[in-house]
Amino acid sequence: MLKTAGIHHITAFVNDAQANVDFYVGVLGLRMVKKTINFDAPEVYHFYFGNEKGSPGTIMTFFPQANARKGVIGGGQVGITVFTIPSGSMPFWQERLNKFGIAFEETTRFGEKYIRFEDNSGLLIELVEREEGPLSTWSFGGVPADKAIKGFGGAVLFSISSKDTRNVLENILGLEKVAEENGLIRYRAAGDLGNLIDINAQDMPWGEGGAGTVHHIAWRAKDFEEHEQWRKLIANKALRPTPVIDRQYFNAVYFREYGGILFEIATDPPGFDNDEPIDQLGQKLMLPEWFEPHRSLIEQNLPPVEVRVLKEDKE
After folding, report:
1. What pLDDT shows up at residue 253?
2. CA-CA 20 to 30 A from 55: which of 10, 16, 49, 264?
3. Per-position DSSP letters for 292-307, written without gaps between them
4. pLDDT tens digit string along 12-22?
5. Under a CB-based contact definition with an 8 Å cutoff, are residues 61 and 36 in contact?
6. Cα separation of 124 and 121, whole Å?
């Protein structure tokens, strides 16, 4: 049976491009690994943030659009995005969030302690300490590499039909059910990042897409050959996958499972150094070749953004 290693990336809607960069780079210390556009809506940026290479399992991506409609977090979405941090680094992150005036709450789930907070568009984010998974080597602003976010710890899925979503997790993606408590069921994927997935046991009402909500969650396929196998499996399960789509940095197949959540299968290769050197990632607006003739117009329609150290880290 095919088994995914876990989350490849998570993509969300937000409403301010510079504020998005400031939060995920300036506050959380992630690297902007790619600045490009939504290939389906070239008037909108597509930002990718992750570790030093943008490794699968570390990549949070965004479609920022000014004056975007505010969404409502609920069923048919990833409700909470979980990042993992090095063991012993929680006090650092609590102090850091306090320094930036970001309110957080402490919570416990399946014996693990989390801190939960919102980004500046209302997305729910959690940090959890874990030993597993490689350390990041990236540092920025006031976040040293030994305290840096390693990547995804996992996610909490909000399903309108929990039984159907759990069926996909178990019988298509190959996750293993490992625990159940307080209305949540926990699954484990095969990898060491983005590998612990929690889901509501009881069905939830629909959320509404918009700024502050997750658009889709992508699962890892190790290569192009396995990716084709995933697509055939999904089609055989009558889940109507899209054709394989070239996203420049990975190939993608999308399908909406019957719990309402948009799933993607994404390949690990070719990666974000496909069109620029590792040491220059995220510095220039990168366009696929079919948009290059329109670069000037595209750039005129996009707000200027910069990666910057925030004032709180300069004081």
Report:
1. 98
2. 16
3. GGGHHHHHHTS-----
4. 999 999 999 99
5. no
6. 9
E-strand ranges in 119-226 read: 124-129, 151-158, 176-181, 184-188, 196-200, 213-221
User: What is the domain-level CATH number for residue 78?
Assistant: 3.10.180.10
Which residues, including other chains, have CB under 8 Å from residue 77's CB and lie 6 or more apart? 157, 158, 207, 209, 213, 214, 260, 261
Task: Pick the closest to residue 210 from 81, 73, 118, 78 (CA basis).
Answer: 73
Q: How far apart are CA 50 and CA 27, in angstroms?
A: 13
Assess contact for 70 and 122: CB atoms under 8 A: yes
**Residue 125 pLDDT:** 98
Calculate the CA 194 to chain-centre distance: 9
Strand partners, 126: 82, 116
* Residue 191 identity: G
Instruction: Tell me: pLDDT of 315 over 90.
Output: no
Residue 194 lies in a domain: yes
Regarding pTM above 0.90, the answer is yes
Cβ neighbour number for residue 41 with a 10 Å cutoff: 11
Q: What's the domain count of the chain? A: 1
Give the pLDDT score at 67.
87
Return the ∠ at Cα 151 (arms to 24 and 8), rounded to 5°. Answer: 105
Q: In this predicted model, what pLDDT tens digit does every residue of 52-105 receive, in sequence order? A: 999 999 999 999 999 899 999 999 999 999 999 999 999 999 999 999 999 999
Instruction: Give the domain range for residue 253.
Output: 7-313
